Amino acid sequence: MAVVLGYEVYALTGSPLALGILGLVEAIPALSLALYGGHIADRVDRRRILRRTLGALIVCAGILSILETTNLGKAQLVMLYGVVFLAGIARGFAEPAAAALEAQVVPWELLINSSTLMAGCWMTAAVIGPLAGGVAFEKFGAAWTFVGVGVFYGIAWIAVTRMAPRPTPAAPANESIWTSVATGVRYVAGNQVMLGSMALDLFAVLFGGAIALLPVFAHDILGVGKIGLGVLNAAPTTGALLSMLWCSRHPPVRHAGRNLFWAVGGFGVSMIVFAVSRSFALSVLALVFSGVFDGVSVVIRRGILRLLSPNHLRGRIASVSMIFIGSSNELGAFESGIAAALLGTARSVWLGGLVTLVVVAVAAVLTPELRRLSLDPSRVMRRDIEVDEAIDAEADGASQ
């Protein structure tokens, strides 16, 4: 969906800024609703949330397909943005519920390995998706490509429906929405490892990412067309998949914090190489390596989120993480569009890579606990048990 939407918006406008606005249109509802979505995920059956949001995404794919069969002129762009806005609303509720349900389904002792495998599963789809999107767009057109997207959303809906029910965490009596949301935010803010890892990803990808500008590189700089755009989109996820396959056998848990800093720094260097390259092969290789480094980062950050989150707060903590990640991705796309319009596309990307390296250096100094982090399962398990026991004891004291 992202490949087709990006190419269509750029074809309609010829403007990198319009691509940035595309990311912003999805980010506004998704991030605005994220904290409330996390509150709901800790109060309502998480499967039911996913069924409803996937149903909404099926409708969005259908509307996009219909729009591609009409000729609305300037209104076409507005309508495309409108559908993306609706998809952003669905995402605001879906992502916290999905993250919380994952940790609820998988046994505790398997969370690190399963987190790597599940991220690898997503990356496999993310590799196939852009390639299939580019080929389907070229061979069958945008309308039928969106129909295919809707079919796969439907398969996901069936899969979630067939899952066995999971217990809904008990909520404190008479707790307001604002108190509930604030509890999750305070937990993250008081945990240097969680906050540091989220902030590192936020600022690094916010300034160092260039995914939103790939249609410009494909169309104007490298001249590789629609299929080439699909290859460029697939390259980072291919690299991430390779690193996740490696991590599934050799989890980067012993020196997780140190590995996280090296991974984000490598991501910044890869984006600098991509920005200065005028060779399609070198550009693809640079994007592959950016994905390799990002894959290691994802494995570590997912491990932190799953292992350090008590069950009754998982939805709200996941929503805070979503705000950080969403800001880095979608708002990063908006920042990329503005920077490209002001500085030029290639220059904005290599300058962003340099800023990423500065962010890594500053974060390494400011977050010593993250720098020394180990994700040894037994140590993390004891820490999480202590957190849950303390919360249970506090709740028992209040009831007495």
Keywords:
about 400 residues, mainly alpha, globular, 16 helices
What does this structure look like?
The mean pLDDT is 80. The longest helix has 31 residues, at 75-105. The protein contains 16 helices and no strands. Helices cover 83% and strands 0% of the residues. With 400 residues, the chain is mainly α. The protein is globular, with a radius of gyration of 21 Å.
- Please give the number of β-strands: 0
Biggest β-sheet strands, sense, barrel: none
End-to-end Cα distance: 54 Å
Low-confidence stretches: none
Q: Helix-strand pattern, N to C?
A: HHHHHHHHHHHHHHHH
Q: Count of DSSP helices?
A: 16
Any idea what the shape is? globular
Oligomer: single chain
**Average pLDDT, all residues:** 80
How would you classify the helix and strand content by structural class? Answer: mainly alpha
Strand residue percentage: under 5%
Relative helix content: over 70%
